[in-house]
Amino acid sequence: MYELTMLKSALADGTAFRQCTFEVFARRLQNERRYGVVAGTPRVLEAVTDFVFTEEQLASLTFLDERTLDYLRGYRFSGQIDGYREGELYFPNSPILTVRGTFAECVILETLILSIMNADSAVASAAARMVTAADGRPILEMGSRRTHEAAAVTATRAAYLAGFVGTSNLEAVYRYGIPGSGTAAHAWTLLHINEDGTPNEEAAFRSQIETLGVDTVLLVDTYDITKGVQTAIGVAGTELGGVRIDSGDLGVMTRKVRQELDALGAYNTRIVVSSDLDEYAIAGLRGEPVDSFGVGTSVVTGSGAPTAAMVYKLVEVEGHPVAKRSRGKNTVGGGKRALRTHRATGTAVEEVVYPFNAEPPTFNNLNVTELTIPLMRDGEIVEGLPTLEESREYLAKQLVTLPWEGLALSKDEPVLSTRFVGFDAQ
Amino acid sequence: MYELTMLKSALADGTAFRQCTFEVFARRLQNERRYGVVAGTPRVLEAVTDFVFTEEQLASLTFLDERTLDYLRGYRFSGQIDGYREGELYFPNSPILTVRGTFAECVILETLILSIMNADSAVASAAARMVTAADGRPILEMGSRRTHEAAAVTATRAAYLAGFVGTSNLEAVYRYGIPGSGTAAHAWTLLHINEDGTPNEEAAFRSQIETLGVDTVLLVDTYDITKGVQTAIGVAGTELGGVRIDSGDLGVMTRKVRQELDALGAYNTRIVVSSDLDEYAIAGLRGEPVDSFGVGTSVVTGSGAPTAAMVYKLVEVEGHPVAKRSRGKNTVGGGKRALRTHRATGTAVEEVVYPFNAEPPTFNNLNVTELTIPLMRDGEIVEGLPTLEESREYLAKQLVTLPWEGLALSKDEPVLSTRFVGFDAQ
User: How many domains does chain B have?
Assistant: First the structure.
């Protein structure tokens, strides 16, 4: 609402068409993490392109005057967006997006842009840590039931960006082409009872094998895990694809189940574990015979940081830098670009932020990567932006460039610092 | 995906049309809170009614056979749903929703039902604690930018259910009729600069007053708060509606600003505070001259508990109770109803859960409230269910029935216990 009341006031006092620059950045990394992952950029660009007001919506805006309603009726963003590509790493004060246009056209995008960037980056930032913790073993996203029904779909996308290999969410499969995965829940085993109501796990397993094939994953912990594994191999034979364990002490259980599978000759049957895993639980299972992980709640809720705390701030008006002076919330005025320096080995050294219209600073003996790329020109999405797959590969490569302590899970300072070059003291 | 692979297997082995009962419940309250708030029920009922598969979606389900696709093509839920009304309190093991029908029609609703109930109940459960902490002073929801763009709208609804008085989210105003609120951000003040680029806070305030009237709320902390307040009253006069403070030590600042406003004769100018408030920060401001609160991030993210941890479990097949035996995840089989007992004074005593088809147990000297009501019959939403406004009033009344320690913010056991009566030892 304040976006539209500001628009109304700005149309009235003549400031609506001042050329402005807004910036998306984060003052800090959540939970004292060491890096953040930019996600949601393509969704932002599409949402900005589609951001229009219907007559029905306009009719509900009874606090606006005719001039403002007219403006909104014809609204289409026609400005410029530059910023970090999706899958890029970010740190406190990284200028993640720079949005330029009139005050009127930029100010009403705040909530749209931030809600997408904050939600998607929160998930990707958590998911990347889980992928690191899994140390090469695949992770499936299966958290749809633990977040808003629409957020579930985009959370899956962000987790895949960060290196998850698949998802249980079929809408994400349909919409984004992410590999799907899923076999059975406990309900499947519980459904199979004898006529007297007693459990019949064997019938459940037999039916699942018949329909989904011997390569399926059987959920073995509905009753007794040891018996469950025995029954599973009894029914499926030693070529069973996998067993899933969703409860108990996963370290102890996976060792026991691996021994049991091996003793039964099912050397190739994989062990899938789920049950409230987060990056720490995954790391704790690093030495155990786990073949893949299923992660739900913790990834869709950002593992303790469900939002990325990005803000959208006015930093420049008609070429003049502007900045607020609120205690603890100081900002640096002026439009910005950023680059990252790397040693010859590839290791990242620091992020350098410089004025949007300045020449980039130069560095001796360091390689330079420009982080700010054009994303939208005159309201049109720039062609040839990276696909989800490309951004996924890009992120994987960027993580390798961090100094080794950057991938540790414990709390610490951001692993790269951000230096401002070429700004006046403000 | 596993919902549909289970459906495929069940259609193949003949179990798809077994009469089943699924139950939504929570094993625990998040963050050791003392009660939870049921929210999302009407959204679930609508979503279940609208849950169909398009031809385009069906074409993407390449892992299904023709029989399963045919089933989905004709799918409409035709079963029964009973459960807690929206705005009801819940505790561990409360049977929040009971879904009855064939295995096929019930099993594919898990993700849909849980994603809505978990998201909405997480927000409502956090918001109710903030309302208690605010002790009668109004709270506005303004967290849209800190959660997924669609989750923002329903989070607003859940916060309003829990007693928030309004929102900055216009889509929620439009869709749910929640009162809207919003005036200006820091960008508004920053936009108003002189030709040489120096700040002109006075111009920003003057323009806002001219457009929005003297009853508006001016944001006074962009530069220096003391000067900001002085400028605000200088421009607006002593009848200014309010000032908002969004940074700094809010306790100290509100006292200083109140003194300043009073010294300027603006006795009726309200003080609105925002800036990362949660229930604890609100409680900490109880003794300060705050007139209303704006709450963002913490409410839309459930204040540390972004999901309600509700699960959807098969509890009955063809009249037989079923339950899994996984360690730490035991459940009680069989369909269930619940009632709550109250003393003559109105204070709640306990929740009693009994078999779905049994007569309710009776109690001497205690009043009994049935918690389980019919919500859907043969796939149709029951008529006359409470409106959002009615549920909001209902919740406010229920909170008063809790033993006094139930409204404390600190961690503890659930304030009411849940007793199972009439179930066989399983």
Answer: 2
